Each structure stands twice: as structure tokens, then as C-alpha cells.
Amino acid sequence: MLKGKTVLLGVSSSIAAYKMCNVARMLTKLGAEVHVSMTVNAANFVHPFTFETLTQNKCLIDTFDRNFQYSVEHIAIAKKSDVVLIAPATANIIGKIANGIADDMLTTTVMACTCRKIIAPAMNHNMYHNPIVQENIEKLRRFGYEIIEPVHGMLANRDTGDGKLPDEDTLVEYIIREIAFEKDLQGKKILVTAGATRESIDPVRFITNHSSGKMGYAIARAGMLRGAEVTVISAHTDINPPMFVDVVPVESAEDMFSAVRERMDSADIIIKAAAVADYTPVAVSDSKIKKSDGDMRIELKRTTDILKYIGEHRTNQIVCGFSMETDNVIENSRRKLESKKCDMICANSLKKSGAGFGTDTNIITMITKDGTEEIELMSKFDAANIILSRLREII
Fold first, then answer.
1. Which of 46, 222, 289, 313 qualifies as a FRET site for 338, CA 20 to 30 Å off?
2. Strand 300-302 vs strand 318-325: parallel, antiparallel, or unpaired?
3. Cα–Cα distance list, 242 to 168, 188, 281 (Å)
4. What is d(CA 245, CA 254) in angstroms, rounded to the nearest whole number?
5. How far apart are alpha carbons 164 and 111 in whole angstroms?
6. Among 209, 332, 348, 362, which one carries the catalytic annotation?
7. Is 161 exposed, middle or buried (0-12, 13-18, 19+ CB in 10 A)?
């Protein structure tokens, strides 16, 4: 995902520096070329050799170190870097950078970088909330630095408060968002539905389906990484939603319909990937539940056809729906394309291994009025990117 990209990690003297070893490892596994610059005091928490082993690059500490191939090293790394992440960023390093002080290898290199710079503060609660530190952070924001807010939790001194460095996955996701993909959907608004709606029968039981939400979330994450402003209307799922998207939680099909109707006019692309329960109990009352011979019969009514409503009431939006079939996949899906007035239907079959509910992969046939295109077995995230590329061509 990050092949051909160069990441500079700046590590300052905080106990949280240990997390950066895993960040460096994760980035190299994603294909990035990783360089680490440390303050002198940071080397008291993590030995530079650890980063050198993980990245296969010399760890830069001493501005006047002559033990490398001749170049003005801080300028060379600054030119190569696609993004800089300074984490953990102490009050000291934040103050230096905010006020233009470049007196060591790390601050000198950062000052020479023209790429995106991300800072993740980590310190004691009272230090973090010190008005001088807060003023320096705001100053960095004004100069275009991105600030990753620290986490509230137990700190190194056993106090509980703000100032904890976020987990490694979060730090890496900030880098991925910045450099992994071309921002070809910048300025576009995407509305995605995901997950399985639930229709309550009584306080214990409900009607639902097997949708995991993985495909919808994959589309949302792919759109976000390509620069779009993404809103996910999410029914039940057991997975975490992607970062940097607006999540609207819903329960029933009616909840989802209301949320879609409220937001669809502001969207450029609408993708219905949620599996909506087709029926809902007419009323939750004993009079509607008939029990005889051990059987329970409930009076049901059809839920709103959300995709059809979107197709019939859209203005200039591009609309994509999903079609899960067991037989006559293409024929049934093409009928949905026409009857629901969509621009694209993504069809797949429950009978194909690696496709369908709950898997991390999918096999999809994209159907438009101009024809069909097969997406072979691949991850749902990779399939999501292909779908978005085709929808972008329609816009």
C-alpha cells in the first residue's frame, strides 16, 4: 500500500517512544521506506539500533555525524520524505518547532521538510494543558501541521488524564490517509450504507440477516483515503468503522431510510451496501403474535425499499446498489438496475466461495446500462477501489 513512499518518523524523549518501534515495523511491512530521526534524549528510551534493524536505515541523531555517505543529511531526507510524523512529541519539541528553533538533527530536518507534517503530543496531563503548550499547538495548526489528539487514560506516572500517545494502528492510519492514494475523489461527498438492520419482534428477538458490514466499510475507507468526505449510515456490525469518516448508527430499516433521506441531497455518490431486513413486525404486542402447537406466527409488513427510493428521488447523484443472489445472478441484478433506477449494481452470488457475507474477500460483477465487468476474487478493500474508480468515471 505504501510502496515507493518515504516516511520520516521523528522521535522525542518520552516513555511512549517504545510504540514507535512497532509503527516503524508496520510501515515497512506496508512497503514504505522508513527513516527515523531521534533527539539525543530519546535514545535513552529506545536504542537507535532498534530502529536501524527495523528500517534498514541509519537512525539520524547527531547533526555532525560523519558516519554516512556524504550529503547534507537533514536536507536529503527532507527532500525524500512524503510525510513526517513526530511521535511522541514532547512539550519541548513542540515548542521548538512552533517557534522556529532548529538546534538538532530532528528539528533541523523538520524545518527543511515541505511535505505534510503530523505531530502527536505525548506528555503529562498538566503539561499538555499548560496554556503555553496549547498556544504552541495552535500555532502549529495555523502553519498547516496536523495534530493527533492524545488519548485520555493512565499515564506513565500512574495519573489518569490527557496526554497518552494513541495506539500504533491509529498513528499508522494517519500516515496511510496522507500518502497511500491519489486524492482523485477530493471534494466529493460519498454516502454509504453498511451492516444489517434489525427489526424487533419483542425486547429479546429480532429479524435480521447475515450482513457483516465489511463491504460497506471497505468502500467507506477507500473513499476516505482517496480524499472524499464520507458518511456511513451503519446498521449492526461487529467490526470497527474506518477512521476519518462520519458514522451515523441506526437499528431498523426505517431508521436507515430516514437517515438516508435526510442526507442524500448533499451527496455526490450514494452506495447502498447494507443488507436491509425485508420485513418488520406490524406492531410489537401480544395481540399480533399468534402461538399454536409450539409455532409462533407474527404479522409482518414489508420495509421501505431504500434503494428504489434513492433511485426515484435523486437529483444529480450517482447511485450504486448491491445485489446478493443465489440464481440467475446477472439477469436478476440487471432487472434491479432498471427497476430501481441505479447507475450501477454490484452483483455477487452466495454460491461462490470467497464471496458473500462475512468474508474478507469478494467476487463481484459490476452491471451498468453499458454492460458488465467482472471483479475476480480479491479483498473487499481492493474491490471497493475498483467500484469507486468506475463510479468516478460516470460522474
1. 222
2. unpaired
3. 15, 18, 32
4. 22
5. 25
6. 209
7. middle
User: What letters, b where the CB count within 10 A reaches 16 and e where it falls short, cover 165-179?
Assistant: bbebeebbbbbbbbb
- Residue 147 has φ and ψ, to the nearest 5°, of -110, 125
Give the helix/strand (H/E) hosting 168.
helix 168-179
Please count the CA atoms within 13 angstroms of the CA of 253 that sit on its side-chain side. Answer: 21
Query: Helices (H), strands (E): how many in the chain?
Result: 13, 21
Burial 64-99 (b: 16+ CB within 10 A, else e): eeeeeeeeebbebbbeebbbbbbbbbbbbbbbbbbe
Q: Where in the chain is the domain with CATH 3.40.50.10300?
A: 189-394
- The strand pairing partners of 89, in sequence order, are 121
| Alpha-carbon dihedral angle through residues 189, 365, 309, 212, given to the nearest 10 degrees | -80
pLDDT digits (tens, 9 = 90+) for 74-131: 578 889 999 999 999 999 999 999 999 999 999 999 999 999 999 999 999 999 999 9
Residues with Cβ < 8 Å from 259, sequence gap 6 or more?
233, 248, 250
> Cell 443488507, residue?
275
57 is catalytic: no
Whole-angstrom Cα Rg for the chain: 26
pLDDT digits (tens, 9 = 90+) for 40-82: 999 999 999 999 999 999 999 977 665 555 455 557 888 999 9
Q: What pTM value is reported for the model?
A: 0.91
Rounded Cα gap, residues 281 and 83, in angstroms? 53
Superfamily of domain 6-179: Flavin prenyltransferase-like (3.40.50.1950)
